[in-house]
Design brief:
Structural class: alpha/beta
Helix content: 10-25%
Order of helices and strands: HHEEEEHEEEHHEE
Radius of gyration: 25 Å
Strand content: 25-35%
Shape: elongated
Length: 223
């Protein structure tokens, strides 16, 4: 938008009247007025001391975690078994083979890459009020980013809730000895589905992810 267009909008802007109904006309008096209303409603006299509101606690500080788009190479090794290698950047080793996709953290500094991501993921508490729930967040991500094939929410307890473009909601749980980043398991699932395989097969038999020489058994559950 050009400057003349912005100035024209500002000059002719007419704010809607409805929000004004909810704006208070007595700043600093909400505690006293609310207490008076509540005590009148229950029919008892107010206390003599002044009405005060406890200040809301500050949210805990969350240092930003640097995140860049990940180039993910995958190879199907057998029934339910996928090898996964991730690179922080657009280039892999020249001798590395596999099917490629892009996995991007929702809070990446390179937000312009989110619309092109195959997998969008994030980490957090399952009950974080900012995101509703892992099920809500994954649905919102797929609705917002139409090129995304799979959204993955990794909880602090180590589970990974994923939603596929086909609508399946699945939970990935690490088995004994599985200690990779749970977003790796989401990329393995994406590779499996992109190859035309079904999630039902993984629910029945489980998923095996290989990172280098390490084997990670993963349980897949329909939510």
């Amino acid at each position: 938008m050009k400057r003349p267009q912005m100035e024209a909008l500002l000059d002719h802007h007419q704010p809607p009247p409805h929000p004004a109904e909810f704006v208070g006309s007595a700043p600093g008096e909400s505690a006293a007025r609310l207490r008076r209303l509540f005590y009148d409603a229950i029919g008892i006299p107010e206390p003599d001391e002044p009405a005060r509101l406890e200040p809301l606690p500050l949210p805990p500080y969350e240092p930003p975690a640097p995140a860049v788009p990940l180039l993910v190479l995958t190879r199907l090794l057998g029934s339910g078994e996928i090898a996964v290698t991730r690179y922080a950047g657009p280039h892999a080793r020249d001798d590395e083979a596999g099917e490629a996709h892009t996995a991007v953290h929702e809070d990446t500094h390179e937000a312009d890459q989110l619309p092109y991501a195959d997998v969008v993921f994030r980490y957090g508490d399952a009950d974080d009020p900012r995101f509703g729930s892992p099920a809500d967040w994954t649905a919102e991500i797929l609705d917002r980013h139409r090129s995304c094939a799979l959204a993955a929410y990794v909880t602090v307890r180590g589970a990974c809730v994923v939603r596929t473009r086909a609508g399946a909601l699945l939970r990935l749980d690490a088995g004994p000895g599985a200690d990779a980043d749970r977003a790796v398991y989401a990329s393995a699932l994406h590779a499996w589905l992109a190859a035309g395989k079904s999630s039902e097969e993984l629910v029945a038999q489980g998923l095996t992810v290989r990172t280098g020489e390490v084997v990670h058994p993963v349980t897949v559950t329909a939510v």
